[in-house]
Amino acid sequence: MSLLYALLIGAIAGWLAGKLMKGGGFGLVLNIIIGIVGGVVGNWIFAKLGVAIGNGLISDVITGAIGACVILFIAGLFKK
C-alpha cells in the first residue's frame, strides 16, 4: 500500500508543481517521478529549516509539491 500511496502523492504533487511553475507538467510518468523526488527534497528542506510538518495526505502533497517546484526551478536554470 505504501508504494501506491507514494505514486498517488507523487502524481498529485508533480501535477501541482507543474501548474505552479507554469510548466504544464511533463506527462503522468515524469510528474510522478518529479513528485516523489520532490517529496524527498521537500522533507530535506523542511528538516534543514527546522520546520515540523504534520503527517497526513495534505501535508505530504504540500511537501512534495514544494520539493518538486524546487526541482523544476533548478531544471529551468539549466534549460536556459
UniProtKB/TrEMBL annotation:
It is found in: Cell membrane. The keyword Nucleotidyltransferase does not apply. It is a multi-pass membrane protein. Its main location: membrane. Keywords: Cell membrane, Membrane, Transmembrane, Transmembrane helix. It comes from the Bacteria. InterPro entries: Transgly_assoc. Pfam families: Transgly_assoc. The chain crosses the membrane at residues 28-46, 58-78. PANTHER family: UPF0410 PROTEIN YMGE. Belongs to the UPF0410 family. This is GlsB/YeaQ/YmgE family stress response membrane protein.
